[in-house]
């Protein structure tokens, strides 16, 4: 088997005395779409942020393309080709849409800026209409599109998404997942953290289920979708 | 309009532009790390000494062309003061980055005392001065009064506005400026996008110190005298200007400086010169009570 794009090896993470992650091991292969599902507070976001050492893991290893990146500072991790669409989107509220996109391409310089910006505007035509507007004036869905576009501006090898569907109207969620499906089809590696398990698992090759900081189940997207435990806990039992 | 009003308008504009320059340091530092740098006034004071030292050395070598004197003095003073800003952040604030909010504040007060005493010991407690470099003025008669605008004041206004314009351009339109704004708006996200925010914070301290140094050179040209305690009052004034404009907002700092300078000058002529500081600080109290976010600031939202 080839070297995985991302690998967690027995990772423990503590916030003071509270343990957020227990011996977490998982893998994301090159070109794969993997989702991590679990309830609110299960440790999913902590896991994603720990890739950027925010916070740093207490023990265990995080490997990216076979390289140990445990404890590397966030801005160094960003230069390796990992981009994140964080929880709550975290677009820069006082910057224009266009400036937000420029922030995404900082790590790769200006070589592809014009080309990529056009590509983002084709992917999300709403952003083109609002290119000079301040990002805080966008709707939630538009902000999510902007956060995804900003991440893509760095031409990442690995795209991490934290709850891209949170707080969005069903139609917008559908649209966002449609875009993710296209990205995956183009060969991008996606690692997705979601509470919206049905959408996430239908998109994914494989999935992990996290309960109280532990990986409790893993399998293909299909397997998890039909797993009675998962159906009861995360898919509303039907 | 009478002559005195116009005269104070000019005086106030000059003073206000300089307050604005110093206020930039308070507001930008507050913007990126949420801390009031109480040592900023002392950085200004240091720059006044550096300016005098530079002028003395250049005078010793017989340089007497005003543009050249200014050029060398500005380059020297801005650079060395910038280094002061960088060092202060590095030794007094960065180690406390993950500490409580109060710790860097106390550290700032400590740095402020250290700098005052260091200058007092090394340069003496006496008032220092520089000679007038740019003599002469434009005079206009207005009725019975006349309005006098010295060349020095014109130079101060020009230099201050050029400084502000250059900085505004950098912050608004360059990659460096976007990195500063990103760090200010969401430091964690800026890091995730590959920005070394520690470096950006250093840079902001250097920018603030440089702007204070520009103010230091300009005020020294205008008043000619200063002492080791000169940074205190003007520091608090510039802080007032930053709060008035909305702390964290760059245009706010410049606007706040101008408004404070103008209103202080008018108060001096219309009411009482001796109470002008009382006026400014009463203004600070009133802003803090009735509009704590300042003119251009936004009400603070607690981030989760």
TrEMBL record, chain A:
Signal peptide: none annotated. Keywords: Amino-acid transport, ATP-binding, Nucleotide-binding, Transport. InterPro entries: AAA+_ATPase (IPR003593), ABC_transporter-like_ATP-bd (IPR003439), ABC_transporter-like_CS (IPR017871), BCAA_Transport_ATP-bd_LivF (IPR052156), P-loop_NTPase (IPR027417). It comes from the Bacteria. PROSITE patterns: ABC_TRANSPORTER_1, ABC_TRANSPORTER_2. One of its GO terms (molecular function) is branched-chain amino acid transmembrane transporter activity. Pfam families: ABC_tran (PF00005). One of its GO terms (biological process) is L-amino acid transport. SMART domains: AAA. Residues 6-237 form the ABC transporter domain. Belongs to the ABC transporter superfamily. PANTHER family: HIGH-AFFINITY BRANCHED-CHAIN AMINO ACID TRANSPORT ATP-BINDING PROTEIN LIVF (PTHR43820). This is Amino acid/amide ABC transporter ATP-binding protein 2, HAAT family (TC 3.A.1.4.-). It comes from Azomonas agilis.
From TrEMBL, chain B:
One of its GO terms (molecular function) is L-isoleucine transmembrane transporter activity. CDD domains: TM_PBP1_LivH_like. Pfam families: BPD_transp_2 (PF02653). It comes from the Bacteria. Keywords: Amino-acid transport, Cell inner membrane, Cell membrane, Membrane, Transmembrane, Transmembrane helix, Transport. GO terms for biological process: D-alanine transmembrane transport; L-alanine transport; L-isoleucine import across plasma membrane. InterPro entries: ABC_transp_permease, BCAA_transport_permease. It is found in: Cell inner membrane. One of its GO terms (cellular component) is plasma membrane. It is a multi-pass membrane protein. Its main location: membrane. The chain crosses the membrane at residues 12-36, 43-63, 69-88, 100-119, 154-171, 200-223, 229-262. Belongs to the binding-protein-dependent transport system permease family. LivHM subfamily. This is Amino acid/amide ABC transporter membrane protein 1, HAAT family (TC 3.A.1.4.-). It comes from Azomonas agilis.
